[in-house]
Each structure stands twice: as C-alpha cells, then as structure tokens.
Amino acid sequence: MECKEFLIDQRHGNRDALISLLYAIVESSDDAIISETFDGTITSWNPAAQRMFGYTADEAIGKSTHIIIPADRHAEEDYVLERIRRGQKVDHFETIRQTKDGRLLEISLTVSPILDGFGNVVGASKILRDTSGRWSLNALLSSIVTSSDDAIVSKTLDGIVTSWNPAAERMFGYTAEEMIGKSIRTIIPEDRQAEEDFVLGQIRSGNKVDHFETIRQAKDGRLINISLTVSPIKTVTGEIVGASKIARDITARLAAERERTSALESLKEALAARDEFIAIAAHELRNPLNILNLMWRISGSQGRPEKELPGKLVEKSSAQLARLSSLVDRLLDISRVRSGTFDLYLEEFELADLVRAVANRFTVAEYESPISLKLNEIKGTWDRLRIDQVITNLVGNAIKFGRGKPIEIELSRDADEAVITVRDYGIGISAENAKRVFERFERGESRGEHEGLGLGLWISREIVRAHGGTIGVDSEPGNGATFVVRLPVHR
Amino acid sequence: MASPDDEVMVIEDEPEARTHLVELLQLEGFKATAYANGAEALAELQRRTKLPCLIVLDIRMPVMDGPQFRAALLADARLSAIPVVVMTGFDPSAAAKLSVLRVFRKPLDFDALLTAVRANC
Fold first, then answer.
1. Distance CA A470, CA A237 (A)
2. Chain B: nearest CA to A316, how far in angstroms?
3. Residues spanned by the domain of B17
C-alpha cells in the first residue's frame, strides 16, 4: 500500500474506514500526490503522478525525487526538505518539474511534514498541480513588464538597479546587463541628481511619486522628457525593500504641445493682422465715400458756384467710384488668392503693348512723375489682366513713393524670361523692410504715411508665382527702389 | 491770449476731401483754410497771432498725424484752448481719447459738423 504513511492517527477509532477514505482520495486525485523520506527517496506515487510524469509507481518508488526535478532546481529540494524538517509547510510554491520524456511542467507545489504516532517528522508528502498553460501571476507580470512600452525598472533603497525591462533598454540605450547592479543615477543628468534623494526619501517613508515630469539622460547623452511614477516594493510583512519605477517618454507629447502652442500663437497673430487689415480696408473704403458725399453735398448747395458744372461733377464722381470698385476688386483678390481659386486665363499677347498701356493710364491721370519707357517687344503667354494688375501696382507704388522724380520702366528679354523693371528715385525701402514688403498686410512705410491696403505687392507676388516667375526689389532708403519681375515667356 | 476769429482750420491729407470740405464751409459763409498735415497747420498756428475758432482734424496723415498734432496743441499753453473736432475712417473710440469736442466718422455728416462749427465760430 503506497498510502500507508498517511495512516498515522492511532487516536482515531475507525481506522479502517479512514484508510479506505484516504486511499480513495489519493488514488482518484488529479493532483500528483507523492511522499518521500528526508533523503529525498520516493516512498509513494499515486496514479496522477504517473500520468503527470510518465513514471509508474514501480519505477519511481525507491528512487530519488531528482528524477522529476530539473538539474538547475535541485537546490530547491534541499530548501523544501529543510523547512519540512523544522515542521513547516511549503504552500503553493511555483516551480518547474520534468517528465520522464524530458518535458518541463509548470507546477504549483504544496509540501507538508508527515508525523509519526508520537508527533515526530518522518517524511514529506507532496501535492503537485500541473499549472502549465494556466495564468500564473508571475508569468502575467513578466509578460506585461517585458512587452510594456514604458520603461519599468526596479531598484534597491540605495538606488541600485535590480531589474531593467526591454522598454528601458530602448528608451535609455543601456542593456539590462549594463544597468543591473549599477546605480539608477547613471541615467540622471548632473543637475537633477538631487531628485533621486527626494524620490528615495519618499519611497523610504512608504510614499509613491506619481507622474513626476522630469528629464533623464540616455547612454548617447540625449535628454529625454519622462513622466515618472515610483512605488515602494514591500515584502509580505510590509517591509520596504526597494522601488519600482515606471517611466514614460513624453518627449513627443511635449513637442506636440509646443507645436500646438506655437500654432495657436501664429493663428492669433494672423487674426490680429486680419483685424487690422479689416480696419484699414474700412478706412480705405470710407475715403472715396467721404469725397463723394462732400461733392454731392456741394452740388446740392444753393450757393454752388456756376463753374461747378454737372459734367465736371460726374467726371469726378466717376473717379471716386472707380477707386471704390478697385478697392472692392482687391478685397476679392485676397479671398481668391487665399482660397486658392486663383485661375490664370492664359493668352498670347505682346507684353510691350501692355506695359505701354499701363504707363499711358498713369500719364493721362496727370501724376507728377514723368514716366520713361525703354521697351523691347516680347510676345508670350500670360494672363493679361493679372499681369496688368502687377505692372499697375508697381508703377502706382513708384508714383506714390517716388517723390515726383522720374520713373523708368524697362522691358527686356533674358533667355526664356521677360524681365520687367520699374525704377523710382523716391524714398526707397530699408533692407529690413525689403524682406517684408511682399508679405500680406505689410507695408514698408510706417502706417499712416500712405494710403492703401498693404496688399498690392503680396497679390503681385502671388500672380507672378502663379506664372512660374519671380519678383524682387533692390533698394536703399532715400535712393529709390527697383522692382524686377521675371516671367517665363511660355508656360 | 488772442481772441479767436471766425476761421475754421481744416487739416486733412486727402486733397479732394480737403478741397471739398473747405469749399462747403465757404459756401456756408465761413472762412476756411486747408492744411495737408499736422505739421503744416502747427507751423501756421505758431506763426500767427489770430487763432482759428475751430480746428477740423483728420486722424491718419503723413508727417504729423492727428494724435501727434493734438498732443502738440495741448502742450502749448497758447494753443491748447482752441476747440478741436476730429474726423476718422478708423475706430472712433480711439479718436475719442484725444480730448476733443466731437468725433465724426467718415463719410462725414456735414450737417453735424456744421452744427459744431456754428456753436464755436
């Protein structure tokens, strides 16, 4: 009877009945139940043990328990037997055992001392449950730690690293081999070493450090923004023996935050620029309206002198109305250019004719500045109205800022490009302003000096770019400005 | 201090607006003079002894704008008491800070301006 060692309670009255009960339990159990002496010799072996390990009772009894213990775990057996000798139990000890054919099994092991009729420990009974393929807390934890994207490390209360997961390797560049046994201070930048004293102080007092945002240094010197959570590691008795740290790389998050902030800033700036633009646009629209209003008031005045003939009034009104229309057109241009619905209507024409026509318009308009032309004939394919707009803008600026001095317009050919040059000898543009004049809502001039939306050059640049060309300015303050437009002859 | 005469001083950089406003004031029987910016007007005021009964001042002008001109008047004991009204195409609340009798928006309500002129000249 393999189970006779269980039959020890001589105080029990119905001894035979008890033996039968224990026998039935041991024989039908799904857990392997074996007993052994202090030197590790197997003394009983139930059918479940045979199913689990592949050895029959005949094969196992009398042999050393080492037949089912992997070589690297033989020391465990000494530990277990030492406890049993002292009359202590080993409860649900998770370990590995080996079958007859060499397979390794995950085992939950419970070992109890066997007492003789006088209470002396005479051997050990072992119940082994095969937990292979089942969730084990250790395995679960281990897989979480291994697959985590957060660095998870543990350290002693002196800050010596005791574990270092793959994410920590990736984040900080040190391998587990390099870090285990070393101080965690290895990854703390020089100017933040004091943080570790604080963290360890918190841990020693049993406190957690939660989502502490700080900076750590990788092996290659790179600084990493991390969010750090540190918790004390306690033994069953509540003694604090170390700390576990979870570090999340928040470099990307911080960069995204910075990007958002800066995007918000530029949005605010754009909004402020637009508000200012609306104010200027309203002012520009009010001026011709103001003049029209005053003119019509004069025409209705009873004391109106005879010299103010209706024809003259109509002519003057037309000029103001044209100015209003042109302002409205330019406002529309902005929204068109902005929304990208800026189509070119290309046709072949003689650019010299267009430049001449624009110059004539300004001459007829009785401006102070004489305009001189030096034009080569160049036929090409462009959007006639848009190019007209560009030249009109440049000549208009030259007159506005030209202090009444002569204005020179040239048209020449440079390889496949038509080059339009508009030169004035007026107030000029500083180098700093020259960079900005083509931007939206910018004017080289200080505000208040000259009328306009401050958009002419921006729209001109967009038109020239749409033609595949370039526009630039060369100037020094006090000596006038030279704007050069280069347009490919054919698109 | 010189006693004001019946002259209205118009300071406005837009030539046509300036010409028409002066003409209208003259049609209403006032003596009106025109200046293209604050600097021109200030030089004239400092030169002469007789001061205008009212100054009609534009805000945005080259060389010396409305606020600069107003500050210069207030800094000069002899000129600081001259009544000033302003006209602006911008936000009138900004112009209201200039310690002036009235702020007119453009397009100008000439009848309203006339009331102010009649009250002061």
1. 79
2. 10
3. 7-120
Residues A184, A197: Cα–Cα separation, whole Å: 11
Q: Provide the number of structural domains found in chain B.
A: 1
Looking at beta carbons, which residues of chain B come within 8 Å of A451? 14
Beta bridge partners of residue A423, listed in sequence order: A408, A482
Interface TM-score (ipTM) > 0.85: no
Closest by CA position to A284, among listed A236, A329, A223: A329
Residue B112 within a domain: yes
Q: Give the model confidence (pLDDT) of A290-333 as tens digits.
A: 888 888 888 877 666 555 556 677 777 787 888 788 778 777 77
pLDDT (tens digit, 9 = 90+) per residue, A117-164? 888 888 899 999 988 776 667 778 888 899 999 999 999 999 999 999
B34 touches chain A (CB under 8 A): no
Q: Which of A286, A294, A448 sits opposite B24 (nearest CB)?
A: A294
Q: What is the CA radius of gyration of chain B?
A: 13
Is residue B15 in some structural domain? yes
A20, two tokens? 């039968």
Helix B66-74 to helix B38-47 angle, to the nearest 10 degrees? 20
CATH of the domain at B24: 3.40.50.2300
